[in-house]
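Notes from the 1:1 (GR / supervisor)

We went over the backlog. Supervisor wanted to see one worked example end to end before approving the batch request, so GR pasted a single chain during the call. The sequence is below; no edits were made to it. Supervisor asked that the structure be written out right there so they could see what the output format looks like.
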Amino acid sequence: MRGLGADALWPLQEQTDALEDQVTCEFRHLREFLDREEEDVRGHLREEKDRRLMQLDASLKHSMEQITLLERSATQLQLRLKTKENSALLRGIRDFILRTEMLFQPPPVVSTDLQLGQFVGPLQYRVWRKMRSIMNPGTLRSMWCRKVSLL
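Structure output shown during the call:
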């Protein structure tokens, strides 16, 4: 123990400080990476929401147009029924109905269910795979070797 003077402790202190700095730096990189990944996933989620809302809006507009056309046809038919005598109405009713016949065409179905797997499901796995690309295996190996040599 007498050989352990300030000269022997100094390298240990330097090595420990360097490792602490390196660990702090690596974790900062990981946090920055995770923050970017979170923003990417949230951005994709917002884009998907906006896309679905636009589809729903278009579907609503289509339905409203169809309803307006149907209401017009019903109004025209009611006016014709009020203004014509029954016998005259029956003679021209077939042509009139064919001219005003409108069928409601429902808009395409828009799914409001988000696919959770796209945003949550394999999230940990996807992030882990991307995270591997930012981690330098040589750095991790050298950190482990230094830690073992300190023991």
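Supervisor's comment: Residues 11-105+116-150 form one domain.
Batch request approved.
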